[in-house]
Design brief:
It is built from 28 helices and 26 strands. By secondary structure, the chain is α+β, with helices and mostly antiparallel strands. Helix 14 runs antiparallel to helix 17 and helix 22 packs antiparallel against helix 23. The longest helix has 28 residues.
Length: 810
Amino acid sequence: MLPAMTDDGTCVASFTEEDGYIRFERRPECHACDLNLTCRNVGILGEGRPGGILFVGIGPGQEEDASGRVFVGPSGRRLRSLCAIHAEGVPVAFCNLVGCRPSRNRPTRAQAVACWDRQGHGASFLEVFRPKCIVALGEIVAGFLMFSRTAAGIPVSKMRGSIREHDGMPIVVTYHPSATLRRKTVSARGAQFLQALIEDIRLAARVCRGEVQRNVAFVRSKEMPPGPSVVIDTETTHLRPWRGSILDVGVVDPDSPMSPRIFPRGRGFPDERPAGWQRILGWNLIFDAQWLPEWVMDVPWEDGILIHGLLFPEVTARSLKVVGPSITGVVYRWTKSVPEMTPAERREYLSMDLYQTAISVGDLLPRLKESPAARVYPFVERLARRLAGLSRRGIRVDVQRVYDMLRASHEKQSSIIRRLREIAESVGGQLRSKDLAESWSFSVSRKDAIDVIYERLKLPPHTSPKGGLSLSSSARAELTPIDRTGFLGLWGDLIFEQSKAVGTYLRPLVTEGWIDGNGLAHPVPHLVRRERVGPESSTKGAGGGTVTGRVVWTDPPLQVFPKEFRQVIVPRDPQGWIASVDLSQIEPRCLVDLTREESMMEAFNAGQDFYRHGMAVALSIRPDEVTDKIRRAGKTIMLAILYGAGPWKVREIFRAEAGMDVSLPTCEDLIRRYRRGFPKIVGFAEEVRAKTLGGIPQVSPTGRVRRFDIGEDAEMACREAINWHIQSYASDVNHAILLGFQDRSDLFAVAPTVHDANTFEASSVHTDPSPIREELSAHYEKAHSFIREFLGVSFETRISYKIEVGRSWQ
């Protein structure tokens, strides 16, 4: 054990053990800070069983101060009860940053440092309790342990759900149990905090059981990965080099591997490829390498972020730089932020970073070769190069048109506010607003709007999860039909103008540095999972990269750019063209190709509509008897049956989608006919469900690997697994067709993928769009050969597409 000591060497803490339960006691001699002057009880600093989870809180509360125990108050009792249920037999122990009750339950930075560091309680806790995982309870604790001993850090919502590192040990960040008590758990927010806490306790237990690999301390190795390789790593604040955002480029040269070179802001980096640099190992080449000299794009890559994303797709892009090397067993510790470093410290930091990259990538490569993902990696790496090149090249933004649209939006908002104010005054209310001309928007009093809607117009009250009156989209949708004044409809238009058109899409184009001095935007492609989603969390909305194969774009967010605003994306040449090719019903076509369902494949190859044909079979009618309403309902019904829906759900879909009241016996008969008519599709869904429930990893036709955690909602996990197979295949098919254009000099991808569409900038040599349509059509007719070439699979279902050509991306 490491005893806690005062500056003069006096021991101020000791521990006792009885039946494996340890109590870590503080003695009265401690005077390292002023907290001992106000606390009631010197008591126990920590207690619990060793070898499992160590929960770290802020400090004792009122009941802890009175009893001399830790975590015995309301929040402590809740945490202990949750551990008893969800830690599943893993030993747990509890301690705090400070041993005495702090003022307002929040210690100062000096008090926390004095107790945790100077007295050595932190090191003693780790020595005595020997935790396999640390759980930081709340933002203050996480910030102190992980970010330079500051008393605050990043919000818990941005840190939880993944495994991080503290002194060579895994650490999980979660909400303090008091957060689940401040709001009644019947509220949506309180229930959200409680569920998150439960998920993170389970995650920590999985780490302790060895189901998730733990971190170890960084040790510099003198052995570089074999082969003629060079390691490159780029430190950036953001990918905007036209604003000087590249900080440093570090290189480990194979000729002198123990002397890494740092090129500040990239200055001095070789403009031509040195002779010995045959291969590049990097950790985030997809994000950074496009801003290095052109030759970097032409040499072989081994990109750690792509390899890791294929092997461990549950980890997000945001945390790969920290978590990725941790899983390979190589991490390093550095507590200072970049601005605080001296030149010597900065060089040491970058050197460690480079070695971490080299060893991590070298360790991941053998794992990749043993994984089914080895088959898809060359395709993903090739796609990464293509997208990096597109990001570097950029897309033209008509800045003048952006300003014109901003001004038009501002005038529309002003007109809406005038009308809203007239309605408010007509019923005895008011609507105060402020013109924020510099941001092309208005600040409007929400309190006044609520007063008009619920007090003056007497509309039925809608409450938010917090209990207040709501102006949400669902409330507006229900109340607008009974609002004879039109106030709510106008209010919805105003909110859209401010939060969507102006704030999310248009204004950032000219205010956030998305456009360089040449009028080009350089959208950033994310080929790995972007949103923060932990191993125990729902994967809904996570999308992108190694998860589904889709690409997520940021700065600007092209994949969600509304069609009415796409006109700001224009060709570089004023006489140029932009063309977009959308794959029609690609996901059901991929489902049919996955299952080799003959009747559906014949229908597709004959040019029939998938959903119309499917509903004709299910309803035992001719395809021409399937109305548009039935077809629309069929899109949802056929997927619902695939997910295992029963007759009640099918009847509900008929009512919602087609406005039809269909009897339950008819719905039962429809399900039977569907299952009988498409046995291979049904069999595929049942096989995926069985693998999901059995915890068996799923492998897509192209080699992507994914394990689905059933958690508390097995049905949701099964639906996600079925959808993942279809979406990942469809995304890879679309991108394989995109890669077929890489050798064309007269067509350049602009926004290369927006769900199931590819967008191209065409050469201005064409005076009309006809030749462009012909060229694109000829290319897409060769889609099956591109799929075979890049994905190594034989796609037998016919591919259909729609081509649009115009002067802007609209």
